[in-house]
Amino acid sequence: DRDGPIPLSWAQQRLWFLDQFDQAAGAAYHMPAALRLRGVLDKVALQAALDRIVARHETLRTHFRQIDGAPQQLIGASDSGFALTEIDLSTLHGHEQEAAVSRVSIDEITQSFDLSSGPLIRGQLLCLGEEEHVLLITQHHIISDGWSIGILVQEVTSLYAAFCQRQPDPLAPLALQYADYAAWQRNWLSGQALQAQRDFWTRYLEGAPGLLELPIDRMRPSVQSYAGGRVDMTLPAALVQELRALGQRHGTTLFMVLLAGWSVLLARLSGQTDVVVGTPVANRQRAEVEGLIGFFVNTLALRVQLEGEPNVTQLLARVKASTLDAYAHQDLPFEQVVEALQPPRSMSHSPLFQVMLSLNNTPGDGPLELPGLTITGMEQEQQSTQFDLVLSLAQEGDAIGGSLTYASDLFDAASAARMGEYFKAVLAGMVGDDECSVSELPLLSQDQREQLLFGFNDTAADYPADQLIHQLFEAQAVA
After folding, report:
1. Is the bond preceding residue 371 a cis peptide, omega within 30 degrees?
2. Do 111 and 139 touch, CB atoms closer than 8 A?
3. How far apart are CA 289 and CA 396, in angstroms?
4. For residue 306, what are the contacts with CB-CB under 8 A and spacing of at least 6?
5. Is 374 within 8 Å of 239 (Cβ atoms)?
6. Interval 363-417: pLDDT, tens
7. How many CA atoms lie within 13 A of 401 on its CB side?
8. By the 8 A CB rule, do 7 and 180 touch?
């Protein structure tokens, strides 16, 4: 019933409660995107394409209110339109203009959403010149996810191309909407199906450590601020090829190999042999929902146990078994896993895990082409994070690129960059000898070893050889 209140999905309900009771956490769930547009931009066609996207996907015109003591989602009219604001920066030039773009971009990311009234998607079009623009689009995670961004990009591309030529909407009508999925999930995930999933996760995570004790630069605050930073990293093509070969020899995916290496690093840094790493899964196991924009993604808590001095081969077997078990029970929303386990709660860190790993395979990652326009993605400064560390990786040609996002309350950028180098050294050690014990895999690159063993010990200095040691000491005491 689109005219009445609709229950939230489990994932939406968690974000709604976060927004209600922890504004800092709510702001950490903004999903920004920035595109630089070079060429002749048809603003009328762009606005029409964005308006059509909002009309097509109910979730983009949804807002949330508490009704009879429970949060409900309410769907706006199909002609709600897309809130696109234009800002003229064409009178600025050079560094002044780029500084203005950066300032507007940061303001856009940090500006809050009102879940009770919406809209929960908005954009700004920055005019830098007659044939140069920057498009900023920000969504709240409660209505979207990473897979949805790919759908948004694909559909805007098709609609803009059609509307530029004054042609009709070329997209096939949607058979379902996100509200249908939310209602289905509430009905299906109950009774025996719910209990079987809860029983698995209770066994799977029983006895796992509640906190990963990584070496941090500053004492953990009693309440998370969700402030974050980011350092970029690249796994070179030669290493990626060797990682794929390692996975093929042991019947594991590239993600499983990366998870094994990441877990080795976390275990070595923390001194703990039981590590829990979060990872997002698209959670679109039915074909009917593959083309929908909405918050489908689920988070799995993957447990990797390294006790008993396993070698690389043995660890990969453990990671494969553990990951496949978790994948087979991915339907239970993370919020329900937390409820089933009832871990001690703390405002200082997230429950069950504090570190994540993602390997991106969402749709829409190819080059974006629009009539008369050259479009490139823009990196935006990382302002927030929900976790201590988030390692995000994606295929970039034959190499793998990505970033390590860190909680700036805990880590300095230099520490995060150093951990990225450690990770690459661990992976290189794994492909070099898969019979090597994981406790003996190298953490340091050759340059880091040289610095530690020789650079830091290069302390030779001239001294007055005609004086005895106690005379030198006396001179220092006088000084």
Report:
1. no
2. no
3. 27
4. 263, 264, 267, 273, 274, 275, 315, 438
5. no
6. 544 556 788 888 888 877 667 889 999 999 998 889 999 999 999 999 999 999 9
7. 4
8. no
Give residue 115's identity as a one-letter amino acid code. Answer: L
Structure tokens at 370: 């629009």
Backbone angles phi, psi at 96, to 5 degrees: -65, -40
Average pLDDT, the chain: 92
* pLDDT tens figures, 190-206: 888 889 999 999 999 99
